[in-house]
Write a structure and sequence with these properties.
single chain; alpha+beta; Nuclear Transport Factor 2, Chain: A; four-stranded antiparallel sheet; 7 strands; 41% helix
Length: 200
């Protein structure tokens, strides 16, 4: 009787040890699988971003930004720069410069200082209506072509078809404006020009 009890307890202990070994082995395999999965996605995190006016959601990954996000942000920045009245010119200039790339801040500030002064002194207003938006995702640039209307006082001074390019830099998880200038239909991204002048 005692021998039977002893063998039964021994078998139970062996079963428990076997179960523990299987459980530990399973945990080790799960940890290895988790580590492998984490390693495989390292550096490829994708963040969902929302532009100031929500039309879509977009992603950035590493140092890349989706083409759709560039287009939406270029449209918004063009609106800040070109849909201007004397009453909002200073505010919109400062808002635009808040997103300027550090390396280009001084140049953009000088360009838009001249433009804002022109708007105020001449009681001028401008309105830009984009008709096409062309992204260059690799260069992080967007060309916008449309009609620019200019009023001086209550008189329409001009109406012209024109193109602007908006350049970006993605730094520390934030999209910065590095370029904003008037170009042309023939060279929408301004590849044949220098830094260009402030849009007029």
């Amino acid at each position: 009787m005692k021998f039977s009890k002893f063998t039964a307890e021994r078998d139970n202990q062996r079963a428990e040890i076997l179960f523990m070994r299987i459980a530990v082995g399973g945990l080790v395999l799960a940890l290895l699988a988790n580590a492998g999965a984490s390693f495989s996605v390292a550096g490829s995190e994708r963040t969902i971003l929302v532009p100031p006016e929500v039309h879509k959601t977009f992603w950035v990954s590493g140092q890349k930004v989706s083409s759709e996000y560039l287009q939406e942000m270029a449209y918004w920045y063009a609106g800040l720069a070109l849909n201007v009245t004397p009453h909002v010119a200073e505010y919109q200039k400062n808002l635009f410069l808040r997103y300027a790339a550090p390396s280009e801040y001084g140049r953009l500030q000088a360009e838009y200082g001249v433009r804002t002064e022109f708007i105020r002194k001449n009681n001028a207003s401008t309105q830009f209506s984009p008709q096409s938006v062309i992204p260059d995702e690799a260069a992080m640039k967007v060309a916008l072509t449309g009609v620019l209307l200019t009023w001086v006082g209550d008189k329409k001074a001009s109406e012209k078809q024109t193109t602007y390019v908006v350049g970006f830099q993605y730094l520390n998880g934030r999209l910065h404006v590095s370029e904003f200038k008037e170009t042309s239909d023939q060279d929408p991204f301004g590849a044949g020009n220098g830094t260009g002048a402030a849009p007029r």
